[in-house]
Write a sequence for this structure.
């Protein structure tokens, strides 16, 4: 008897998301239910969150799957993320609760300027709420997010 007919790893959950900027990425999740301002809140030199008022202050987001409900602030988010892509300190992907134009624009411009982009995926609020820091996440071009409990 085949208990796993789709041949997915046991403990893996597939979440249907919307690919705002398609792409593939995998890594450890870094999750917050608090929005993040990248202007003065993210050090693009190190990939560390530096906003003293954010719950993730001092945590390195570079190369991780960053899940925040939305960006806070203005178009400077795009500029800081663009610099992080150039420096190699950007998140591997960003997961949000809706279309975030600043995250999307940063990824699109990074692709044009540097040939490097990162996926931006929108989940509904309930699915976003199920994400936890430390989970292994893989993002597919289609917007599907595969989550493995750790």
């Amino acid at each position: 008897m085949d208990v796993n007919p789709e041949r997915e790893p046991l403990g893996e959950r597939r979440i249907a998301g919307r690919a705002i900027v398609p792409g593939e990425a995998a890594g450890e999740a870094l999750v917050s239910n608090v929005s993040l301002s990248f202007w003065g809140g993210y050090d693009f030199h190190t990939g560390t969150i530096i906003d003293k008022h954010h719950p993730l202050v001092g945590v390195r987001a570079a190369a991780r799957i960053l899940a925040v409900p939305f960006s806070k602030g203005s178009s400077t988010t795009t500029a800081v993320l663009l610099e992080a892509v150039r420096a190699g300190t950007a998140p591997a992907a960003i997961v949000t609760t809706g279309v975030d134009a600043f995250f999307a624009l940063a990824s699109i411009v990074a692709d044009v300027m540097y040939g490097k982009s990162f996926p931006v995926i929108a989940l509904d609020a309930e699915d976003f709420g199920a994400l936890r820091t430390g989970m292994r996440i893989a993002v597919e071009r289609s917007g599907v997010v595969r989550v493995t409990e750790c």
Observations:
- The mean pLDDT is 92.
- The two ends are 26 Å apart (CA to CA).
- The longest strand covers residues 25-31.
- The chain is about 20% helix and 25% strand.
